[in-house]
């Protein structure tokens, strides 16, 4: 399990374990917070082709799907 703190999400780098379409490395480019400063969602972008995906930030905690940093 990856230890992810919501305040440190923006700008963080991630590697997807199961690569699809050569999209392996990602970067968090936006994080949305609600009025209670809880993370609502985050926007990640593939480094290779700049495609963006909306993602529930808790999915990044799953080390069987995501690795911290670029590997």
Automatic annotation (TrEMBL):
Superkingdom per UniProt: Bacteria
Protein name, as recorded: TIGR02450 family Trp-rich protein
């Amino acid at each position: 399990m990856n230890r992810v703190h919501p305040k440190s999400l923006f700008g963080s780098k991630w590697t997807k374990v199961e690569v699809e379409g050569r999209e392996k490395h990602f970067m968090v480019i936006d994080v949305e917070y609600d009025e209670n400063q809880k993370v609502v969602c985050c926007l990640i972008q593939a480094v290779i082709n700049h495609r963006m995906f909306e993602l529930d930030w808790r999915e990044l905690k799953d080390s069987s799907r995501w690795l911290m940093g670029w590997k």
